[in-house]
Fold this sequence. Notes:
single chain
Amino acid sequence: MRRREFIAALGGAAATTAWPLAVRSQQAGGMRRIGVLAGVAADDPNGRIRIAALLQGLQQSGWTVGGNLKMEYRWAAGSADDLRKYATELAGLAPDVIFAAGGTSLGALLQATHTVPIVFVVVPDPVGSGFVDSLSRPGGNATGFMQFEYSLSGKWLELLKQIAPATTHAAVLRDPFDPPGLGQWAALQSVASVFAVELRIVNVRDKDAIERGITRIAEFPNAGLLITASAPANVHRDLILRLADRHRLPAVYPYRYFVAAGGLACYGPDTIGQYRRAAGYVDRILRGEKPADLPVQAPTKYELVINLKTAKALGIEVPPSLLARADEVIE
């Protein structure tokens, strides 16, 4: 999200808009409430940017915080215990809709309620995870926007080999308590022999485990890192980036903001766009539609981003063919 859009979204709560008649009548009958459950910390800058995109989308549909809408936020900061506790709290408040950011948030909420409507984003394989019956007919009280199919995870290893062809060992940083983490690991394992790379698991929930795991893989020649998509990886991203730099390890990440902060490369969906699009589903549910009738949508855009400055610092010459395919090159 551009800075201008971010500021506009944050200012949306105070903006005056010409609301549709239906929304005006809803406001007159009482303020609507939306719960938000996120796995990152409340002060996480990227988490805030994404929520700003959600608020911007809601504003465009005629909803303004403090006007006809009240938000209830819960930030788990990578804690599985807090995630379950906050999911129960939000369900107990019985808001009109709960917005779930990520698969672990959605899983906790579906254990807490089968009646409160839920709109989710960045959830890998919601059908395989048992969250919805099908993409076209979710069936229950949840719908939203899937992150990717697990097979996409294999492309991270392919990308690592394209950037650093000599790689023979790679640490896979994943959340051992997150079912989507198992799916991503399985997809990586299925292609590891094709690329002649030995994979080792590192528990991304634990800071000490992250440091031990990355330090251990760095002892191998031609080693690299693969960071799977999870809330703990987001929470500990500064540590991961710092260790990758310290040990001079090529690394592939799931999201652009890792690369913007100094990571080498990423391939993944446009998550900010998902937050903005999710506002449309929240709006439709507030107007009376049911999650069971709203199909789960797949990403419309994937981003390949390469940090050329980091590549040069690692002594890596990125193939021109890969640079030509990149959606963004950070220099």
